TrEMBL record, chain A:
Residues 176-189 have a biased composition (Low complexity). InterPro entries: P-loop_NTPase (IPR027417), Small_GTP-bd (IPR005225), Small_GTPase (IPR001806). Keywords: Cell membrane, GTP-binding, Lipoprotein, Membrane, Nucleotide-binding, Prenylation, Protein transport, Transport. The lineage of its organism: Eukaryota, Fungi, Dikarya, Basidiomycota, Agaricomycotina. This is GTP-binding protein RAB5. It is a lipid-anchor.
From TrEMBL, chain B:
This is VPS9 domain-containing protein. InterPro entries: CUE (IPR003892), DUF5601 (IPR041545), UBA-like_sf (IPR009060), VPS9 (IPR003123), Vps9-like (IPR045046), VPS9_dom_sf (IPR037191). Residues 221-235, 337-346 have a biased composition (Low complexity). It comes from the Eukaryota. It comes from Phanerochaete carnosa (strain HHB-10118-sp).
Length: 208, 475
């Protein structure tokens, strides 16, 4: 069995840039192990197999792109290992919005978060308002990954997620990584597992 | 726990089940000491170490100020069936106070989200957070569950942390996001409304609040927690019945046994074992149902109110299906609920020791009883809301008793054959619509299973949804 790592990926961007379609394309295409999520498409998972024999399982957290829900975004990107910030190449305003998300992530999110800037709707290149050069230059300045995708045709979709998967650090034990996914400031109770973890690590049985 | 003899050699899956069972057992026993609203009711009093109750009160009051918020204020497109889905989502969320174990409470939240996604599919909208979050906010606003924050905090504190990741974590976070939106919303966070309208609506809501409410903040500003007045906890609504442990108690569905194969029966038995009654939600549901009733066109209502006396169509997938989709699929269920005309069987409620809800319930149709054979839990099976109707069990002899309903029909002198045909048509439409709705909520579920469940529940959509939610959450 290959080694699997699990990461939390948060999806940001204005509404109507095709965030959800992008992820649906990624999750439903190509891979055989797609399973209908149990509740709905706002939370999806997908596993990417890498050439080195490891595999990366993404837990994809979709966010509402409308401006009015901006204040709840921190609940979603908290403890995220990576973020995909999506804009629409036919709407230059959506890149502005993406920039503001990126600034927020750089300020507020985990400093080690990997951010990918993603220009969606590359199938509509005739109506392009954002040039590849402009977006790429910005991404390089900010140290972001960058790519263009078409959720409609599927072009570039798997590539960008695979690139992210390659870039994620495969150092922490898989379960510990996943464990970071949800430990909010909200948790103030007693963690009964703490002692067991401290003394023996994740695989030691709890002696309670 | 793993080292104990009992569990040393069991498989991971079995151990996981054991852990879940243990969590439930322990938390059921400790509920009075751990769930803040319960702690507040302890005699002798115990110190309350969190501000949950204050936050509950503030949130609940804030939500009460926004009862007028409609879906279009959040840019939610409405369509046929919208209200019904919304009502089911509220109803699932409201069950949260009926359970004690953190897992069960969490499942109520997840089920509510699942119904919302059913609605999104029903509306053919793109599935994703952009369409999900506004509806979730709408559901929280309309449902206004008691002690929502206490419940969420309780889940955060006492649910096994490894079970609060991934999907469950996502939807719990979304609920918190919805709450924080409500806590801070003003006219700029809503669509299709001016500042004046917003303030006027809030002002009106303040006027209609009960007198016990503390001073309300001016519109447009977030509610700030006031000083913890000594009377705060006594001003809380009276304790609702927390009989939340009964999910372990079996419940038998009134399935006409001869109609089902052994397999199907076992399936239902399994389902029944895990369902428990959301009694505390019923009163609210009744009130809402009455509202919906009032809003139905009289003619429409009259037609439908008769339909149960017709024979239920058994053939699936007729051409009428598509047309049926255009109808509001929930009417058949809604119209039953407040029926005052159904006669009460005097001993129907005997043998329900844990039934302590004081809210009004419609009595079950007595004609069901002879057929709900066998299991000693029969009275539970006849619990209120689920009861609504089992049309094929209606006997002609009931018709006179239903006179008050029938009198609403526009013209009692219509020729009977014509009425019957109309009734059959309407009813068939309703059944097909229900079938479509189930498909939307459970896209991966086997169609035949849904058919069976729908049939077993006498065509009652709400009941079928619950049964299917239970079945799918178990897998």
């Amino acid at each position: 069995m290959s080694k699997q790592f699990q990461f939390k990926l948060v999806l940001l961007g204005e509404s109507a840039v095709g965030k959800s379609s992008l992820v649906l394309r990624f999750v439903k295409d190509q891979f055989d192990d797609y399973r209908e999520s149990t509740i709905g498409a706002a939370f999806l998972t997908q596993t990417v197999a890498l050439e080195d024999g490891t595999s990366v399982k993404f837990e994809i957290w979709d966010t509402a792109g409308q401006e009015r829900y901006k204040s709840s975004a921190p609940m979603y990107y908290r403890n995220a290992n990576c973020a995909v910030v999506v804009y629409d190449i036919t709407q230059s305003a959506s890149l502005e919005k993406a920039r503001s998300w990126i600034r927020e992530l750089q300020r507020q999110a985990d400093p080690s978060i990997i951010i990918a800037l993603c220009g969606n709707k590359s199938d509509l290149a005739v109506r392009r308002q954002v040039s590849q050069e402009e977006a790429k230059k910005y991404a390089e300045e900010e140290g972001l990954m960058w790519g263009e995708t078409s959720a409609k045709s599927g072009e570039g979709v798997n590539e960008i997620f695979t690139e992210i998967a390659k870039k994620l650090p495969k150092t922490a034990p898989p379960s510990a990584r996943a464990g970071g996914a949800r430990t909010g400031a909200a948790r103030t109770g007693v963690d009964l597992n703490k002692q067991a973890t401290a003394t023996g690590g994740q695989n030691e049985p709890c002696s309670c | 726990m793993r080292e104990a003899d009992v569990w040393r050699n069991v498989s991971e899956a079995e151990f996981d089940n054991a852990m879940e069972g243990m969590e439930k057992l322990v938390m059921n026993r400790l509920y009075d000491y751990t769930f803040t609203p319960q702690v507040a009711r302890m005699i002798p009093p115990r110190p309350i170490t969190s501000d949950d109750l204050e936050r509950d009160r503030v949130l609940s009051q804030r939500i009460a100020l926004f009862g007028w918020v409609e879906p279009h204020h959040l840019d939610i497109p409405e369509g046929p069936g919208f209200e019904g889905f919304l009502m089911f989502a509220q109803q699932e969320l409201l069950k949260i106070n009926h359970y004690k174990a953190p897992r069960d409470k969490l499942i109520c939240i997840l089920n509510s989200c699942k119904v919302i996604f059913g609605l999104i599919r029903h509306m053919h909208k793109e599935e994703g957070a952009d369409s999900f979050i506004p509806i979730l906010i709408c559901v929280v606003l309309k449902a206004n569950p008691d002690h929502l924050l206490s419940n969420v905090e309780f889940i955060n504190r006492f649910r096994n942390p490894t079970k609060l990741q991934s999907e469950a974590g996502y939807y719990l976070s979304s609920l918190m996001g919805a709450v924080s939106f409500i806590e801070t919303m003003d006219h700029t966070s809503l669509s299709n409304i001016t500042q004046e309208e917003f303030e006027r609506n809030v002002e009106e809501a303040i006027q209609s609040l009960p007198r016990t409410s503390p001073p309300t903040p001016s519109p447009g500003t977030p509610v700030v927690e006031g000083p913890n007045s000594p009377g705060a906890s006594s001003a809380l609504p009276p304790p609702s019945s927390h009989t939340g442990e009964e999910s372990a108690q079996p419940l038998s569905l009134p399935v006409p046994t001869q109609a089902f194969s052994e397999d199907a029966r076992r399936l239902f038995q399994k389902t029944s074992d895990t369902i428990s009654k959301p009694l505390s939600a019923i009163g609210r549901l009744l009130a809402e149902a009455e509202e919906s009733l009032a809003s139905l066109a009289p003619l429409d209502f009259a037609k439908e109110s008769d339909s149960p006396s017709s024979s239920r169509p058994q053939t699936p997938g007729s051409d009428a299906q598509h047309a049926a989709q255009q109808r509001a699929p929930y009417k058949p269920r809604v119209r039953r609920v407040p029926s005052p005309a159904v006669p009460q069987a005097p001993h129907d409620w005997d043998g329900m020791p844990d039934e302590t809800s004081s809210r009004p319930r419609p009595p079950p149709p007595p004609t069901n009883r002879p057929l709900a054979i066998g299991p000693s839990q029969q009275p539970r099976a006849q619990a209120p809301r689920m009861q609504l109707l089992v049309p094929e069990l209606q006997t002609p002899s009931r018709t006179p008793q239903r006179t008050p309903h029938i009198s609403r029909a526009p013209s009692p002198s219509l020729d009977l054959a014509g009425v019957q045909a109309e009734i059959d048509r309407v009813h068939e439409n309703a059944t097909n619509a229900s079938r479509e709705t189930l498909k939307q909520i459970f896209p991966t579920m086997d169609v035949e299973v849904m058919e069976l469940v729908l049939e077993a529940n006498g065509g009652d959509l709400g009941r079928s949804i619950e049964a299917l939610l239970e079945m799918s959450s178990g897998t």
